Amino acid sequence: MAAIPVARRATNPDAGLRGLAAAATALCRSGDLVVPFRAMDFGLSVYHCPTGQTGMLYFDQTKPAEPQLKALRDRLAGLDPSRRVLVVFRDDFYHQKFLKVFDQALAEITRPGRTPRVAWQEKDLTLIVVERAGGVEISP
Q1: 17-132 sits in which CATH class?
Q2: pLDDT, tens digit, for every residue of 68-81?
Protein backbone atom coordinates (compact mmCIF):
# COMPACT_ATOMS: atom_id res chain seq x y z
CA MET A 1 0.00 0.00 0.00
CA ALA A 2 2.88 2.40 0.67
CA ALA A 3 3.83 2.28 -3.00
CA ILE A 4 0.48 3.67 -4.17
CA PRO A 5 1.24 7.37 -3.35
CA VAL A 6 4.63 6.98 -5.03
CA ALA A 7 3.01 5.50 -8.15
CA ARG A 8 0.39 8.26 -8.11
CA ARG A 9 3.11 10.94 -7.96
CA ALA A 10 4.99 9.26 -10.80
CA THR A 11 1.93 9.27 -13.07
CA ASN A 12 0.46 12.57 -11.82
CA PRO A 13 3.29 14.73 -10.43
CA ASP A 14 2.67 17.98 -8.61
CA ALA A 15 2.72 20.98 -10.93
CA GLY A 16 5.29 22.80 -8.78
CA LEU A 17 7.19 25.70 -10.31
CA ARG A 18 6.13 24.65 -13.79
CA GLY A 19 2.46 24.96 -12.80
CA LEU A 20 3.07 28.25 -11.02
CA ALA A 21 4.81 29.70 -14.08
CA ALA A 22 2.02 28.43 -16.34
CA ALA A 23 -0.61 30.07 -14.11
CA ALA A 24 1.35 33.33 -13.99
CA THR A 25 1.77 33.26 -17.77
CA ALA A 26 -1.95 32.70 -18.29
CA LEU A 27 -2.96 35.44 -15.84
CA CYS A 28 -0.35 38.07 -16.65
CA ARG A 29 -1.42 40.90 -18.94
CA SER A 30 0.60 43.64 -20.53
CA GLY A 31 1.08 46.42 -17.99
CA ASP A 32 0.57 44.23 -14.90
CA LEU A 33 3.16 44.31 -12.14
CA VAL A 34 4.69 41.00 -11.04
CA VAL A 35 6.14 40.97 -7.51
CA PRO A 36 8.11 37.77 -6.87
CA PHE A 37 9.32 37.32 -3.29
CA ARG A 38 12.72 35.89 -2.33
CA ALA A 39 14.14 34.15 -5.39
CA MET A 40 10.80 33.28 -7.00
CA ASP A 41 11.94 35.27 -10.04
CA PHE A 42 14.43 32.48 -10.71
CA GLY A 43 11.70 29.87 -10.33
CA LEU A 44 9.51 31.66 -12.84
CA SER A 45 12.27 32.38 -15.35
CA VAL A 46 13.28 28.71 -15.55
CA TYR A 47 9.85 27.96 -16.96
CA HIS A 48 9.79 31.01 -19.22
CA CYS A 49 7.14 33.12 -17.53
CA PRO A 50 7.01 36.07 -19.95
CA THR A 51 7.62 39.21 -17.95
CA GLY A 52 8.88 41.34 -20.84
CA GLN A 53 5.54 43.08 -21.32
CA THR A 54 4.94 43.48 -17.61
CA GLY A 55 6.72 45.22 -14.82
CA MET A 56 8.75 43.15 -12.40
CA LEU A 57 9.72 44.22 -8.90
CA TYR A 58 11.80 41.70 -6.97
CA PHE A 59 11.25 41.72 -3.21
CA ASP A 60 13.71 39.95 -0.93
CA GLN A 61 12.45 39.85 2.66
CA THR A 62 15.95 39.12 3.94
CA LYS A 63 17.17 42.54 2.74
CA PRO A 64 16.32 45.88 4.41
CA ALA A 65 12.58 46.38 4.05
CA GLU A 66 12.16 50.16 3.86
CA PRO A 67 14.02 50.77 0.55
CA GLN A 68 12.08 47.92 -1.05
CA LEU A 69 8.77 49.17 0.36
CA LYS A 70 9.55 52.64 -1.02
CA ALA A 71 10.31 51.16 -4.45
CA LEU A 72 7.06 49.20 -4.25
CA ARG A 73 5.06 52.32 -3.33
CA ASP A 74 6.67 54.21 -6.24
CA ARG A 75 5.82 51.44 -8.71
CA LEU A 76 2.25 51.19 -7.43
CA ALA A 77 1.82 54.96 -7.73
CA GLY A 78 2.68 54.72 -11.42
CA LEU A 79 0.53 51.65 -12.10
CA ASP A 80 -2.53 52.21 -14.26
CA PRO A 81 -5.66 51.62 -12.11
CA SER A 82 -6.91 48.95 -14.54
CA ARG A 83 -3.71 46.90 -14.14
CA ARG A 84 -3.16 44.18 -11.60
CA VAL A 85 -0.39 43.07 -9.30
CA LEU A 86 0.65 39.42 -9.28
CA VAL A 87 2.34 38.39 -6.04
CA VAL A 88 4.39 35.18 -6.15
CA PHE A 89 5.88 33.53 -3.09
CA ARG A 90 6.98 30.28 -1.51
CA ASP A 91 5.89 29.65 2.07
CA ASP A 92 9.29 28.44 3.26
CA PHE A 93 11.63 29.13 6.18
CA TYR A 94 12.49 32.66 4.98
CA HIS A 95 8.86 33.53 4.30
CA GLN A 96 7.90 32.52 7.83
CA LYS A 97 10.93 34.20 9.40
CA PHE A 98 10.18 37.51 7.62
CA LEU A 99 6.38 37.24 7.55
CA LYS A 100 6.01 40.75 8.99
CA VAL A 101 7.86 42.21 5.98
CA PHE A 102 5.68 40.21 3.57
CA ASP A 103 2.58 41.46 5.38
CA GLN A 104 3.82 45.06 5.10
CA ALA A 105 4.38 44.66 1.37
CA LEU A 106 0.97 43.06 0.84
CA ALA A 107 -0.62 45.90 2.82
CA GLU A 108 1.05 48.40 0.46
CA ILE A 109 -0.16 46.47 -2.58
CA THR A 110 -3.76 46.30 -1.35
CA ARG A 111 -3.86 49.85 0.12
CA PRO A 112 -5.13 51.73 -2.93
CA GLY A 113 -8.47 49.87 -2.83
CA ARG A 114 -7.20 46.68 -4.41
CA THR A 115 -8.51 43.24 -3.45
CA PRO A 116 -6.28 40.15 -3.26
CA ARG A 117 -7.38 36.67 -4.27
CA VAL A 118 -5.42 33.45 -4.40
CA ALA A 119 -5.33 32.55 -8.09
CA TRP A 120 -3.12 29.46 -7.85
CA GLN A 121 -1.73 27.47 -4.94
CA GLU A 122 0.02 24.16 -4.54
CA LYS A 123 1.72 23.08 -1.34
CA ASP A 124 4.10 25.95 -0.47
CA LEU A 125 3.77 27.90 -3.76
CA THR A 126 1.19 30.67 -4.09
CA LEU A 127 0.16 33.19 -6.74
CA ILE A 128 -2.04 36.06 -5.58
CA VAL A 129 -3.72 38.43 -8.03
CA VAL A 130 -4.50 41.86 -6.62
CA GLU A 131 -6.87 44.11 -8.54
CA ARG A 132 -9.27 46.95 -8.01
CA ALA A 133 -12.49 45.97 -6.33
CA GLY A 134 -14.96 45.24 -9.08
CA GLY A 135 -11.97 44.46 -11.35
CA VAL A 136 -11.76 46.26 -14.65
CA GLU A 137 -11.40 43.64 -17.37
CA ILE A 138 -8.94 44.52 -20.11
CA SER A 139 -8.17 42.24 -23.03
CA PRO A 140 -4.58 40.96 -23.01
Answers
A1: alpha beta
A2: 999 999 999 999 98
